[in-house]
Amino acid sequence: MTSMDDQLGLRREQRWDLVWVLAPYGLLVLAAVASAVFDHVGWEHRLVTLGIAAVLGGWHGLFIAAHSRLGERRSAMAVYFVGLLALTTVLVLRSDAFQLFVPGCYLLAFVTLPGWAAYVGVVAANVPWLVAQGSDPRATLFSLAMVTPLVALTGGMIRAMERETIRRRETNRELVAMAEENARLHALLVRQARETGIAEERARLAREIHDTVAQGLTGIVTQLEAVDDLVPLPVRGRLAVARDLARSSLTEVRRSIEALRPGPLQDARLSDAVRDTVGTWQEQYDIAAAFTVTGTPLPVHSEVEVTLLRAAQEALSNVGRHADATRVDVTLSYMEDVIILDVRDDGTGFDVAAAGGFGLTALRQRVRALSGSVDIESAPGVGAAVSITVPVIGVEQ
């Protein structure tokens, strides 16, 4: 990218390039008009002179005006300049009026010739004046001795200013690039700081929940189990309901703590976490469950891991509470660019269109946030299959 100053500078250069291209035409037209009006020669001589002037204009256009920027064909500029001087000399010999065009040769020497060749071209540009008819050689040589150094000095100053302009433009581009890089690094630092703050806050919430709600629910379950044999039989049913409710709430709290843990699971521990979840669920509900991993486990971003683990917990929780299943199969598949979690059961099934509990809704939202998808296949009496697909988002090094 270029800065606004660079763009303005380039536009100014393009305008000046157009001036250098068109200025010789102005001098050539002026000299041709003066020759046609003031030369006391026949019309045949005038027409031949104007024809040579037209050839000179075409020569200039062929090498210079036909290109979008000057100097695109430096290798051909020497040929151009020699032809320019030859045609100009012929015109000056035919009409003194074309001495008006000679200053344009000085200009074109610096515009078209590279390096020191431009100074040679300035000296050579004197040839048309030296061969001009009727001029005093001593006056001409004296004039050229004054004009040539002045033109060379002026051209050198212009070239120095051009080099300085180019240097400043390059410096500006470097500064713009540095500013963009600094902005990118600043945005990266801000994002990393925000992610660190979020991770620290999640860790704090996890500790608070574990030390307060989870411990309190654990105590409630323990107390309810302790008084189970001390209350009358009719009350035990109520206590059992309260105990199961407390256990279920404790499971949900532990699930929330697990989801809040900061940082990615190192050494591809996602498969181990899902396996532990399946084992714990099997012990809790006393339902046969199998867990399979396909592909090569790899570390992925924490959001991917938490989402998949949360999906496994939610799907298994729904099976345990609603499906009346006798077997569950959980498969975690690592593919090239996605990870797929499949949970299948042989339970009673359900109407997918009517399923809209908070757990599934929250799961869909979480998966969509990772550009993933949740697919559910089920019908009453045929079990259910839940498939969660999320893209592989690697751990930033």
UniProtKB/TrEMBL annotation:
Gene3D superfamilies: 1.20.5.1930, Histidine kinase-like ATPase, C-terminal domain (3.30.565.10). Keywords: 4Fe-4S, Cytoplasm, Iron, Iron-sulfur, Kinase, Membrane, Metal-binding, Transferase, Transmembrane, Transmembrane helix, Two-component regulatory system. Pfam families: HATPase_c, HisKA_3. Its cofactor is [4Fe-4S] cluster. It catalyses: ATP + protein L-histidine = ADP + protein N-phospho-L-histidine. The keyword Kinase applies. The keyword Metal-binding applies. It is found in: Cytoplasm. SUPFAM superfamilies: ATPase domain of HSP90 chaperone/DNA topoisomerase II/histidine kinase. Its EC number is 2.7.13.3. InterPro entries: HATPase_C_sf (IPR036890), HATPase_dom (IPR003594), His_kinase_dom (IPR005467), Sensor_HK_TwoCompSys (IPR050482), Sig_transdc_His_kin-like_C (IPR004358), Sig_transdc_His_kin_sub3_dim/P (IPR011712), Sig_transdc_His_kinase_ChrS (IPR017205). GO terms for molecular function: kinase activity. The chain crosses the membrane at residues 20-38, 47-65, 77-93, 105-127, 139-158. Residues 308-394 form the Histidine kinase domain. Member of the two-component regulatory system NreB/NreC involved in the control of dissimilatory nitrate/nitrite reduction in response to oxygen. NreB functions as a direct oxygen sensor histidine kinase which is autophosphorylated, in the absence of oxygen, probably at the conserved histidine residue, and transfers its phosphate group probably to a conserved aspartate residue of NreC. NreB/NreC activates the expression of the nitrate (narGHJI) and nitrite (nir) reductase operons, as well as the putative nitrate transporter gene narT. This is Oxygen sensor histidine kinase NreB.
